[in-house]
Design a protein that fits this description.
It comes from marine sediment metagenome. The protein has 402 residues and is mostly beta strands. It is built from three helices and 39 strands. The strands form seven sheets. A nine-stranded parallel sheet has the order 6-7-10-13-16-20-23-26-29. Strands 9, 12, 15, 18, 19, 22, 25, 28 and 31 form a nine-stranded parallel sheet that branches. It has an eight-stranded parallel sheet with strand order 8-11-14-17-21-24-27-30, with no helix packed on it.
């Protein structure tokens, strides 16, 4: 999280409102609250830990819940609630066709640190691990494994009729021969599956010798995008079905060591397939029956798909108060700036700023993040040294903890 801290006596700060309209918000020193900014303002934050208990209130790490399933049950649709999971392995098995049902809009489920793993051994044929039927549901920095190998037709994450589902920096492991990693169906649109920063998402099967499952199933969906995604050791990396139209696989998607890299079924139309496909017995299987699926997509179409993707399209700027200098170029970790303010002065809309852990004492900083992404390592703290408050302008911006 980003913590905005008052300068005079270490007071924390309170923010009135952050909106998607991009209105500037004045932050004044106040001892009441600490503000966690990730994109827009969030609702409740619930904590999950392997040492927790579902009889707790889940509102702090000390009183964390034990299971993700219970944490989801405490969230309110449309509230912008967030669930933070500590490192550990969580058995979140819910038997039955739908598995863990998520019907809560604007929900974010995030792993904190490395090694957040969810296992599931639902033995129901055609069963799901997660069945998502709501909008703006995000999984970040989590590993998910469908552990049992006997059921057929299983799906690890099924998005059914969803707007803007995001899967960011996640790892999905398929064990069973007839299992799909992620399925986009029911008119789902604007999905983003992949990575941000220096990380990527992965969907992979059992081993190179024993390829299993389908990585991505574009069933009934449109304007869904992948980038910084690695698909490996699968029977089929990605399949586009009759109603899987106008989707985009960008070049930093790698589909390797699969039996079939990309399969276009009858009726699939207007998909852009610019992935790197290698070491597959069949790289592309085109049974679509039309010539609208393109491996050299136009820039206009690419931009149309990217409108809904929380990902920078420009330069990355680096900041480090430990070894940076504002006379540096700011374009690499060893050439990092010393201050966030200097990075903001150099950045243009569409750029990203990545900030090393540390305390940043910024004089009179106007944190203008319109059109930018701000990535920070754990422990990055911004102090305003003027004592006059801090103005944050936030529109089309993305806050991410690395």
């Amino acid at each position: 999280f980003w913590y905005f801290v008052g300068s005079n006596n270490g007071d924390k700060v309170k923010m009135s409102t952050v909106t998607t309209r991009g209105l500037s918000t004045d932050i004044r020193t106040n001892t009441e609250t600490i503000i966690d900014l990730i994109g827009d303002a969030v609702g409740n934050i619930f904590y999950v830990n392997t040492s927790g208990s579902d009889s707790n209130n889940g509102l702090t790490w000390a009183t964390a819940f034990r299971t993700l399933v219970y944490a989801i049950s405490q969230c309110v649709s449309g509230n912008g609630d967030m669930i933070l999971m500590a490192p550990g392995t969580y058995d979140e098995t819910v038997n039955g066709a739908n598995g863990v049902i998520i019907a809560i809009d604007n929900l974010s489920i995030r792993g904190v640190g490395e090694g957040v793993e969810i296992t599931n051994s639902n033995t129901q044929n055609n069963g799901r691990v997660f069945n998502v039927t709501s909008d703006n549901v995000t999984f970040t920095n989590i590993g998910i494994e469908k552990g049992e190998e006997t059921s057929t037709g299983a799906i690890i994450i099924n998005y059914d009729g969803c707007d803007a589902p995001f899967i960011i920096n996640c790892h999905i492991h398929i064990e069973a021969a007839d299992t799909t990693g992620i399925k986009l169906t029911g008119g789902t649109q604007y999905a983003f599956i992949g990575g941000l920063g220096n990380a990527e998402s992965r969907i992979h099967g059992h081993t190179e010798e024993t390829k299993v499952g389908i990585g991505l199933d574009f069933d009934d969906c449109s304007q869904c995008t992948t980038e910084l995604l690695h698909l490996e050791n699968l029977v089929t990396g990605a399949v586009f079905r009759a109603d899987g139209d106008n989707n985009l696989i960008l070049p930093q998607t790698a589909i390797v060591r699969c039996t079939t890299g990309v399969s276009l079924e009858s009726g699939a139309m207007d998909n852009a397939l610019i992935a790197v496909v290698a070491d597959c017995a069949t790289e592309f299987s085109d049974l679509s029956g039309n010539a609208t699926n393109d491996r050299t997509e136009s820039i206009t179409s690419v931009r149309q798909n990217l409108e809904h993707v929380p990902k920078f399209t420009g330069d990355i700027w680096f900041v480090s108060n430990a070894h940076g200098l504002d006379t540096n170029s700011g374009r690499s970790p060893i050439e990092a700036f010393a201050t966030i303010g200097n990075a903001l002065n150099n950045a243009a809309e569409g750029d990203a700023i990545t900030i090393e852990a540390g305390d940043y004492y910024e004089t009179g900083l106007d944190l203008n993040l319109i059109g930018l992404e701000l990535w920070g390592e754990i422990g990055a703290t911004i102090y305003n040294t003027t004592g006059t408050g801090l103005t944050v302008s936030a529109r089309n911006c993305w806050f991410e903890k690395l």
